[in-house]
């Protein structure tokens, strides 16, 4: 089934070239079914790249998905044009009276800041509070996961001794949980962050379960027991070359940066990296949309 996007969104043509089934809003209005409404709170600097990564995944499912992008009002992104934001994004004020079946909160390169020092933290808190009653299920990625763990459950983040950067293996703790359906017992996933969250603190919380973890980098998939919130501490949505772009950027700036772990073939940055996590990325999003959104959301919101 297709994903519904604004007619002129730049990512649309790229998705069509990749044979992702997309449908513009004009055609979608003629369909006599109700699509899932997904709100994407895009906090990443390069918003168009993140749009493409997420739309690939939302568009590879058997349900029609209607995507709304949201940007913060209290912080203006420096890496995307205002015209792009005006054309394809809404603000929280514009959607706060609406209901959504699912919400995705992306990462943001601010994890070394205290939450209260982030310019849009109060706005982020308002969005998270609103989601309790206005969203069926939310997926929080990287910084978004840390923010959700802190705001909803009081789990603090902490500074790592060195950047968690590369591809790491993760163990599924309970393959019978719907979110992990089809997962291998051991699967790889990318990480790129300077902070972490305590597995012990999460395990001690009565409302949280660790569904996948790494012996090297800690908790990876954390699920709230009411299935309202899914926290992903890494970046399964990343393309094969995303960590390379980050590495090359920091090298060009003269920063001290280690080669991403288990990423470049033979640990040689001149070799093109391979995507080893794509199948589990699609499984994660498909399972979330099916079991935690489609199967749970009301057909008509009250």
TrEMBL record:
A Pfam family hit: HTS
Q: Where is this site: Important for acyl-CoA specificity?
A: 111
Which top EC class is given? transferase
**Tagged with keyword Cytoplasm:** yes
What CDD domains does UniProt report for this protein, alphabetically? GATase1_HTS
GO molecular function terms attached to this record: homoserine O-succinyltransferase activity
What Enzyme Commission number does this protein have? 2.3.1.31
- Catalytically driven reaction(s): L-homoserine + acetyl-CoA = O-acetyl-L-homoserine + CoA
Q: Which InterPro entries match?
A: Class_I_gatase-like, HST_MetA, MetA_family
- Site (Important for substrate specificity) location in chain: 192
Q: Which residues form the active site?
A: 142, 235, 237
Note whether Glycoprotein occurs among the keywords. Answer: no
Q: Where does this protein act, in terms of pathway?
A: Amino-acid biosynthesis; L-methionine biosynthesis via de novo pathway; O-acetyl-L-homoserine from L-homoserine: step 1/1
UniProt binding sites for substrate? 163, 192, 249
- Keywords, A to Z? Acyltransferase, Amino-acid biosynthesis, Cytoplasm, Methionine biosynthesis, Transferase
Compartments annotated for it: namely: Cytoplasm
What family is this protein classified in?
Belongs to the MetA family.
| Task of the protein | Transfers an acetyl group from acetyl-CoA to L-homoserine, forming acetyl-L-homoserine.
The name under which this protein is listed is Homoserine O-acetyltransferase
Q: Which organism is it from?
A: Sporosarcina aquimarina
Organism ancestry: Bacteria, Bacillati, Bacillota, Bacilli, Bacillales
């Amino acid at each position: 089934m297709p994903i519904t996007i604004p007619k002129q969104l730049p990512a649309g043509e790229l998705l069509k070239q990749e044979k992702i089934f997309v449908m513009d809003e004009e055609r979608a209005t003629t369909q006599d079914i109700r699509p899932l409404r997904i709100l994407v709170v895009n906090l990443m600097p390069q918003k168009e790249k993140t749009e493409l990564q997420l739309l690939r995944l939302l568009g590879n499912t058997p349900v029609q998905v209607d995507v709304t992008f949201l940007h913060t009002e209290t912080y203006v992104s420096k890496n995307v044009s205002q015209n792009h934001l005006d054309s394809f994004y809404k603000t929280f004020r514009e959607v706060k009276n609406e209901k959504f079946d699912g919400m995705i909160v992306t990462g943001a390169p601010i994890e070394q800041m205290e939450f209260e020092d982030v310019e849009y933290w109060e706005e982020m808190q308002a969005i998270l509070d609103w989601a309790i009653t206005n969203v069926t299920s939310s997926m929080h990625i990287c910084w978004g996961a840390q923010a959700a763990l802190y705001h909803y459950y009081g789990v603090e983040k902490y500074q790592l001794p060195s950047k968690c950067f590369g591809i790491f293996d993760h163990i599924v703790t309970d393959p019978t949980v719907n979110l992990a359906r089809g997962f291998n017992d051991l699967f790889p996933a990318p990480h790129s962050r300077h902070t972490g969250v305590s597995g012990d603190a999460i395990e001690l919380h009565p409302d949280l379960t660790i569904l996948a973890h790494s012996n090297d980098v800690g908790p990876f998939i954390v699920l709230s027991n009411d299935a309202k919130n899914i926290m992903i501490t890494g970046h399964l949505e990343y393309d094969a070359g995303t960590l390379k772009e980050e590495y090359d950027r920091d090298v060009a700036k003269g920063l001290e940066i280690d080669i991403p772990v288990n990423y470049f073939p033979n640990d040689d940055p001149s070799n093109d990296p391979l995507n080893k996590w794509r199948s589990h990325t699609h499984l994660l999003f498909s399972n979330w949309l099916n079991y935690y959104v489609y199967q749970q959301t009301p057909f008509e919101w009250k």
